[in-house]
Structures are given as C-alpha cells and as structure tokens.
C-alpha cells in the first residue's frame, strides 16, 4: 500500500499544480483582490501573482470583509502552488480567523498540511471541517481525506472517502483509479 500511497499523493500534487483551481474564493470588481483571485484561478505562483495578493491585503483599497478573507485564501493558494507551505497555512489560518465558516480555507489548509509528512492527522481535521462547512469542492475534500486515511492505516475509511469522491464527481478519474486498487472481501 505504501507505493500506492505515494502514487495517490503524486496524483494530488498534480491536481494542486494543474487542472481546476483548488478552492479559490471569488472576488468581483476590478481591485487587487480580484487580480489575486484570478491568479489563484489561473494556477499562477509567480512574483506578479503574489504581488497582486499582497496589494489586496495591504489595506490601501476599500475591500469588504469577505473580500479580505477571500484574498487570504487566494494568496494561500498562490503561495501553496509556489511551495511556500508555511506562508500558505498562515494565510488559510488568517482567513479562518476572520470567518470560521470559510470552507475553502479549511480545504486548502488540509491540502497544504498533507504535503507536510508530519501533519496527517491535522490535515484530516481540516478536510472534516471543509466537508462540514460545505466546501464547493467536496470531491477533492473526500479524495484528500481518503489519502490521509489510507496513509494513517484507516483503509475502510479511505475506501469510503474515495468512493464518495467518485460519487460526487464521476468525471474525475483519480478516485476511480484509487478504488481499483482495493479488493473487497466478504465478512465472515
């Protein structure tokens, strides 16, 4: 299972690096906060993307409380894509401190924690919160939690999460691939 776990983590890393945005939070208008959101959506992690996010949080623009929270989530995504996990987690924590119901902050914090080998249990707690608070990416939350569950030895829970991820997003191939590795046995 360890080799398969490494494959699952690699799949999640690809998901983080490309494909759909992780869990960016929409910001409307023409502010730096909007540019930060667009950078997170376009999978950017360069200096310009981070500068847009920093400008949004510099306090020079009149942003709503929700736009400030969203900018923390979006800057966290940009930082995570640039492998600044410490900065990303700090941004997700700042978003959660501002809005305890910001599901995408919990989802993204879980993804960042997963990339730190010693943080598996903490990542699971964040995925739990993302699901409970209604993340817009529940399949990703279940998939990530499945990887964590498998890594810490909860194979039944991992199977259930991979299965739920596939139910939620039948077009996403990775959960089906992970499920194919499992062999179901009758109790008895």
Q: What this model shows, in words?
A:
TPR repeats lie at residues 139-172. Keywords: Repeat, TPR repeat. By secondary structure, this protein is mainly α. The chain is built from 10 helices and no strands.
Secondary-structure blueprint:
Blueprint: H1 2-17, H2 32-41, H3 47-57, H4 65-81, H5 85-98, H6 103-114, H7 120-132, H8 138-151, H9 155-168, H10 173-180
Helix pairs in contact: 1-8, 2-3, 2-4, 3-4, 4-5, 4-6, 5-6, 6-7, 6-8, 7-8, 8-9, 9-10
Give the gist of this structure.
By secondary structure, the chain is mostly helical. The chain contains 10 helices and no strands.
Q: What gyration radius follows from the Cα positions, in whole Å?
A: 17 Å
Question: Do you know the CATH architecture of the largest domain?
Answer: Alpha Horseshoe
Instruction: Please give the largest β-sheet.
Output: none
Order of helices and strands: HHHHHHHHHH
Q: Look at the structure and give the CATH class of the largest domain.
A: Mainly Alpha
* Poorly predicted spans: 1-8, 13-21
Described by the principal axes of the CA atoms, the overall outline is elongated
GO biological process, one term: receptor-mediated virion attachment to host cell
Pfam family, one: TPR_16
TPR repeats: 139-172
InterPro entries: TPR-like_helical_dom_sf, TPR_rpt, Ycf3
Key terms:
188 residues, mainly alpha, Serine Threonine Protein Phosphatase 5, Tetratricopeptide repeat, 2 domains, elongated, disordered N terminus
């Amino acid at each position: 299972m360890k080799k398969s776990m490494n494959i699952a983590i690699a799949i999640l890393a690809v998901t983080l690096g490309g494909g759909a945005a992780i869990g960016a939070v929409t910001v409307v208008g023409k502010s730096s906060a909007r540019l930060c959101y667009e950078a997170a959506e376009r999978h950017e992690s360069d200096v310009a993307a981070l500068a847009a996010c920093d400008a949004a949080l510099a306090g020079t623009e009149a942003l709503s409380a929700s736009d400030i929270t969203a900018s923390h989530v979006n800057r966290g995504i940009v930082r995570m894509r640039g492998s600044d996990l410490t900065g990303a987690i700090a941004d997700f924590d700042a978003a959660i401190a501002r809005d305890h119901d910001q599901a995408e902050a919990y989802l993204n914090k879980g993804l960042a924690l997963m990339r730190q080998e010693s943080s598996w249990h903490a990542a699971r707690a964040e995925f739990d919160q993302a699901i409970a608070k209604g993340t817009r990416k529940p399949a990703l939350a279940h998939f990530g939690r499945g990887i964590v569950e498998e890594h810490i030895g909860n194979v039944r829970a991992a199977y259930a999460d991979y299965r739920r991820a596939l139910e939620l997003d039948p077009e996403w191939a990775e959960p089906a691939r992970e499920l194919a590795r499992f062999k179901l046995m009758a109790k008895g």
